[in-house]
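User: Hey, my collaborator sent me this sequence without any context and asked if I could get a structure. I don't really work with proteins. Can you help?
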Amino acid sequence: MLRGFWLFAAICLAVGLITAASAAEQPSIASEPQETEKTEEEKLGEKAAAELEKALKPLPDHPELARLERIANVIALHTERPETRYSIKVVASKGINAISLPGGRLYVTEGALAAVESEDELAAILAHEIAHNSLQHALRQHERASRTDLGVIAAVLAGIVYNRGEIAVMAAQIQQGALNHYGRKAEMEADRHALAYLSKTKYKPTALLTVLEGLAAIEESRWRPPVITTGETHPLARDRVSKVEDLLKEMGVDIVAERRQVTDRFKVEVKSIEKDGQNIAEITLNEKSLFSPAEEEDSATPLERAQTYAESIRKALKNGIQMIDLKITDVEGTALVQARGETLVKVTAGDASFHKRSARELAEEAKKALELALYAETVSRPF
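Assistant: No problem. I've predicted the 3D structure and written it out in structure-token form, which is a compact way to encode the shape of the chain:
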């Protein structure tokens, strides 16, 4: 599940160090009145952004900027601070990360954009980052970060995004001195609020779960990327997956169905093929053959039949069917592959004759292809 692997949540609190440290550098003297006085949060965000962009490379003309800002500002309307307008920059990095700064400044890596499987997952990443900002986690970090050097932290963040291993050592040192026992609470809080935001939009909350499942898979693997995701400062993704799953159940969400709607696990495709000198059609599921209609039925060509069956299969998968729901019904020389009372595939006597197999055998093969795909989905998730 590489495309769903996410490391976005760990960065947020480290950025809090930047903003908090910069706050410590502000002199405690009254500034002269200005025509448009900036808030302390805006000043901190500007300073943190300036430091961060000394090392990172924002892409000002990235084609996804408009979409990112649209998604972020839709989510923002349903937060504790609906007046906040978010600006987003895409960073030239293959790493899968997102960064939140005070004042509505968000950074998303090219790697994150390439890895998302749906707009819902992208919205989930942004919702989590927006939650940190809406809950003012960075500003509340002032006490713990007041002794941390701004430049060092900016370098750490830059190293994380660019996957420089030596920077991770510095990150660990900063963690031990400033972030212990705070990150866990903030991450869980941001997850909880992100779910609430998403539930009030068109985006599906389960997307946050699929993002965290990807992060959990990374933590459970042998790959240890140089990012701040240690148990010392953040809850393990395994724990976050469990908590988010519980929250989704409390919300009455159909997790299985929504998971399939926000990920790209099932690719049902139809194509025309030639066999034994005859034009027929083929339905594939995740690039493996499922069934090939060969005869015309009720004025529908083999290709039209295949397209109808493919749409029925897609709908059933999105509705959350499981292996136990699949069954075969024999009806007057034909065999039907069904799920929850709906016919997914109909094998006719003519199909059987063309393939020199019984209708039942062809239906069994189609059912097995569905079962294998459903089983693969189950084992691809770490929990």
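In plain terms: The first strand starts at residue 87 and ends at 91. You can pass these tokens on to your collaborator as they are.
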